[in-house]
Amino acid sequence: MCPRCGCTETYNISARRRLKCVACLHRFSVTSGNIVASRKLSFTDLLAAIVIFVNGAKGVSALHVSRDLDVQYKTAFVLSHKLREAMAREDSGQILAREVEVIAPIFSAAT
Asked: If you average pLDDT over residues 74-97, what whole number do you get?
């Protein structure tokens, strides 16, 4: 889908791995307008990062991602932050219905 006009019909420009919109003739790539736009990592590394991030039961640190993908810590940190933002955007419209139970932890003061 074209990020400019929303048209779903496109031409494939195979020489540059880009698409061209039929309606507005805007050229774009498959990563335009999403969380991996303007990233220098390969698609394989991006997908590996998503797999590592999603499969972590209690979350995954950026240091863990940087070690597994053999990238700098800052790269892994920014990528992890973008994945968290995308997940938060997906859940932002969710409204809890019915009865919701919250269990607060009980802390005892050590004397």
From this structure: 82
